[in-house]
Structure formats: structure tokens, C-alpha cells
């Protein structure tokens, strides 16, 4: 359940920060009349994300009668979820310094077009997070079919993110978002490695990949699956006591290089050149995502 809580917290906080940037910009620009359009776009994005998650679950449980088809569907969604997790983590790492300025620029353009453009811009800013959350949650929760625990953990993570976002916007709470996203990103990479391992196992059960009975090792006697710590490892990172050779290769082959790339230090920024007052103001306006969320500019 920790894995789905982490997914809800990470994705929820990203979406909350995006909404905070949009709201803060409208308040500062004396355009509170456009706030209902922003909330309408956000609400539509949430509804479609929930429908997307339901559609995935319905397809798996109701439309696919044969177990082989179901295993293949789950394997494909697992691989897709890993791709989305990896892309999201590295995108946020690269774009955090400019996302606030980009959102303000897009919202300025939308304000010049009209209310539908504002709602559409808010919708597009949030829907990506929602669709990613639905897909990643489905893949991460496969091992707990029929259990409501992962869903409750996901909702708990999202609610925690909303509370943190509200407190950040109100300046009642200050956290180092760079450190937060680094730690959660590293944990999500391990979660993604477990999802990929699960996907490989599904491919093997669907007879797409060989080696279903070729175990890399068997430590069932040491790591009893019925113990709480074994259940915790399986739920968080899909670490099982008797994985196949291909599962183990997939887990290590993904987790080790991706973690190394993610945790490597950023290249130092080039020395700033002499800039005019206008250029310096533009640079300050982009800021970092953390600055936009923790110190919103208000009228």
C-alpha cells in the first residue's frame, strides 16, 4: 500500500502545485473572474482520469475472458506505466526551474482568447497527471486484486498532497521541494522496477516470454511470504522470495542504471551574462516550481 500512497502523494502534489501556480497568477493579475474556469478545467480532468482508471479495470476484469489475454493486457499496461513513471520523473527533474514561467505564459495567452481557453489550459495542465496516476496505480496494485487497501492508500496520498499544497499556497508550510521530489523520485524508480518485474512475470504467464519455471533463487525459507516484512517488500517494490531469472534481470537492469542517471549531480548552470533590467525580470519570473508554490504572489 505504501507504493500506491507514494504514487498518490507524488502525482497529487505535482498537480496541486500546477493549480497553485495558475490560481496565484490570476489573483495577482486581478482576474479572479477566471477562477471558475480554472476549477472547471481541473474538475473535468479529475473526472476523466477516474473514468480512465475505471476503463482499464473494466477492460481487464470484464472484457478479457481468457486468462492469457488478461495476463497480456496487464503486462502491456505495466510496461506502459514504467515508461510514464520514468518520463515523469526525469521531466520534472529537468523542467522544475521553468515550469512556473511556462504556465504563466500559457495562461496569459489563454486569458487573451477567452474563458474556454482558460478552462482548456487548466484541463491540459492537470489531465496528464491524472492519466499517469490511473495507469501507474492500476499496474502497481495488480498484486492486491480484490483488496481496497491500495485504492484507499492512493486516495490518502492524494489528500495529503492537497493539504500540503494548500498549506504551501498559504505560506503556512515551507518544505524543500527539490529534496522532496528527489527522494520520492528515487523511491518511485524502485516502484517502477517492481512494476516492470511484474510485467515480465505476466508476459511469461501469457507464454510471450520463456522461463516461467526458471527461478533465479528461492529464499522462501528465509523470506517467508506470510510475514509482514515480506508483504511490505512485495507491496512496495515487488520483491518476492522466488523470482524468475528474467524477472530478476528486468528489476536490476532497470533500477540500477535509472537510479544512477537520476541521482547524478546536475551540471552546473552556465555563468549568467550581463542582462538588461527587463531580461533579469523575466528570469526572475520563471523562478522554480518550489518558489511558485511556496511564495505565491498575491494582489
List the helices and strands and how they pair.
Blueprint: H1 2-28, H2 35-63, H3 67-95, H4 99-113, H5 115-140, H6 149-169, H7 177-205, H8 228-237, H9 245-263, H10 277-286, H11 289-294
Helix pairs in contact: 1-4, 1-5, 1-6, 1-7, 2-5, 3-5, 3-7, 4-5, 7-9
Gist of the model:
The chain has 299 residues and is mainly α. 74% of the residues lie in helices and 0% in strands.
Description:
The two termini are 42 Å apart. The protein contains 11 helices and no strands. The protein has one domain (2-266, 286-294). With 299 residues, the protein is mainly alpha-helical. Helix content is 74%, strand content 0%. Mean pLDDT is 81; it is low at 274-299.
Helix content: over 70%
- Overall pLDDT metric: 81
Biggest sheet record? none
Beta strand %: under 5%
Order of helices and strands: HHHHHHHHHHH
Class based on secondary structure composition and strand pairing: mainly alpha
Radius of gyration: 21 Å
Uncertain spans, ≥5 residues at pLDDT below 50?
274-299
List keywords for this structure.
11 helices; 0% strand; 299 residues; disordered C terminus; mainly alpha
Amino acid at each position: 500500500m505504501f507504493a500506491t500512497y507514494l504514487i498518490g502523494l507524488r502525482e497529487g502534489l505535482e498537480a496541486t502545485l500546477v493549480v497553485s501556480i495558475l490560481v496565484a497568477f490570476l489573483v495577482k493579475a486581478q482576474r479572479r473572474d477566471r477562477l471558475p474556469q480554472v476549477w472547471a478545467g481541473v474538475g473535468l480532468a479529475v473526472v476523466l482520469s477516474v473514468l480512465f482508471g475505471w476503463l482499464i479495470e473494466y477492460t481487464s476484469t470484464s472484457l478479457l475472458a481468457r486468462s492469457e489475454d488478461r495476463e497480456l493486457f496487464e503486462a502491456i499496461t505495466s510496461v506502459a506505466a514504467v515508461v510514464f513513471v520514468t518520463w515523469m520523473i526525469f521531466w520534472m527533474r529537468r523542467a522544475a526551474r521553468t515550469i512556473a514561467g511556462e504556465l504563466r505564459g500559457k495562461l496569459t495567452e489563454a486569458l487573451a482568447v477567452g474563458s474556454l481557453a482558460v478552462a482548456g489550459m487548466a484541463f491540459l495542465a492537470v489531465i496528464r497527471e491524472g492519466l499517469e496516476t490511473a495507469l501507474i496505480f492500476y499496474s502497481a496494485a495488480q498484486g492486491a486484486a480484490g483488496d481496497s487497501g491500495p485504492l484507499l492508500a492512493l486516495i490518502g496520498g492524494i489528500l495529503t498532497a492537497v493539504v500540503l499544497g494548500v498549506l504551501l499556497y498559504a505560506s503556512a508550510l515551507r518544505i524543500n521541494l527539490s529534496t522532496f521530489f528527489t527522494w520520492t523520485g528515487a523511491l518511485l524508480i524502485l516502484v517502477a522496477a517492481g512494476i516492470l518485474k511484474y510485467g515480465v512475470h505476466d508476459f511469461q504467464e501469457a507464454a510471450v516470454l520463456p522461463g516461467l519455471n526458471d527461478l533465479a533463487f528461492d529464499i522462501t525459507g528465509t523470506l517467508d511470504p506470510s510475514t509482514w516484512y515480506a508483504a511490505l517488500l512485495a507491496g512496495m517494490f515487488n520483491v518476492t522470495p522466488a523470482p524468475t531469472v528474467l524477472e530478476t534481470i528486468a528489476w536490476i537492469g532497470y533500477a540500477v542504471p535509472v537510479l544512477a542517471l537520476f541521482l547524478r549531480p546536475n551540471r552546473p548552470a552556465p555563468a549568467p551574462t550581463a542582462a538588461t533590467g527587463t531580461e533579469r525580470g523575466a528570469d526572475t519570473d520563471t523562478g522554480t516550481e518550489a518558489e511558485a508554490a511556496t511564495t505565491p504572489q498575491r494582489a
